[in-house]
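<purpose> Linking amino acid order to shape
<body> The protein record starts here
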Amino acid sequence: MEITLKDLENNIRTLPENFYEEVNDFIDFLKTKYTRANAEDWSGILSEPQRESIKKGIDDIENEKTLSHESAQKKIKDYIASKK
């Protein structure tokens, strides 16, 4: 049996309203999953904030603004200890 848009709409209408956001989130997930599966270049589906974050990370690497994993762990541990 083929499911139509009307079937989906009717089915959604039977849900309590507090589920609408979750349904919408799942639809967004499915759209992203479909786009990723059909994208030749995954970078084309990144949001602008994601692209900016990657660019900042690349800039940090190029300008040697990075920490080793061990250094980052120590900084976090020291920060937490200072707050106790």
Observations:
- DSSP finds four helices and no strands in the chain.
- Residues 5-82 form one domain.
- The chain has one domain: 5-82.
